[in-house]
Amino acid sequence: MAQGSRLVDLVQTRIDGFLDDRSTILRSIAPELEPLDDFSRRFLSGGKRFRALFCYWGWESVGGSGFDPFGDDAERDTFPIVSAASALEVFHAAALVHDDIIDNSDTRRGAPAAHRLFERMHADAGWLRSSDEFGRASAILLGDLLLGWSDELLDEGLDTLSDRAAARAARAEFMRMRTEVTAGQYLDILAEQSWRTKPDDEQRQIAERVITYKAAKYSVESPLALGGLIAGGTPAQIRSLRDFGLPLGMAYQLRDDLLGVYGDPAVTGKPSGDDLREGKRTMLVAIARERLAAGPRNLLDELLGDPELTDEQIRMLQRTIGDSGAVDEVETIIAAEVGRALAALADAPLSSPARSELAALATTVSRRSS
Question: Which residue among 42, 130, 148, 299 has its CA within the 20 to 30 Å range from the CA of 205?
Fold first, then answer.
């Protein structure tokens, strides 16, 4: 994955340069805006960069030419795709900032969530009114700022693309992705708070819809399609990328759901069982409810979403879900979705090296531990 590794370095360089430019604007307005710059950098440093990688390999699968980031034409040839990959990462950071507010999460990647950083800043300074209110309001604005910056990054890259039809198609894909993930986030909130009004036999379908729009399309399918569109991919090539990306995105999120209940905090950077305290109505929970007898199911329903769950209650719920066979069924679904993705890739009209790299990425994202 040498090309992908170089892409990750280029994305970080592009993000850092972009933030340097924007920090100049912020500081010209007022020195008090420095935390917006500092916290943006904190949330845009490191990470697995899966969305950037899928975007690059979508581009490479259509172009099939590779690139030398140290060559004479590297900046000109790669600027649109590096900018698009960087825009995806900035959009993702914005989504995480807002998601942590919605979920009332304390941590992100083992460090304080954005609203907690602002909250601490308020408390340490001894300012008026509530630290909680300041933290939430400031983090909402930080997320909004990052959303706007993701658009600017994308447009800076697309403006240099000679194929204007490709640029318009890529911009449309980005806008559709933004709409879908926002809709998926709302459906997630709705599912958590309206599930008692829905029939039990619809719970799995509801959870699957949330996964599709909140995560699967935005994490894998859209980045792949965005890269392919920037490269001027044909309808058949873009369709192949989508046929590979959607089932892999489902597997990606199902793995995330398992980690949200059983993940090692030292690896995930989130408390063990955090999804249980937040009351996430995932496929894992929907399947467990289908399999549990009335007593254990009622207990799961009663405790799920209680932010004050003790460690012992978390362990008890983990055992209950595991003993129901739900974990094994989710693992089976993950394997089936990865199989669907790889089958779509096998004869796809995409470059052979890119298909090999995408197959390797499928294994990486579906078996990850964080």
Answer: 299
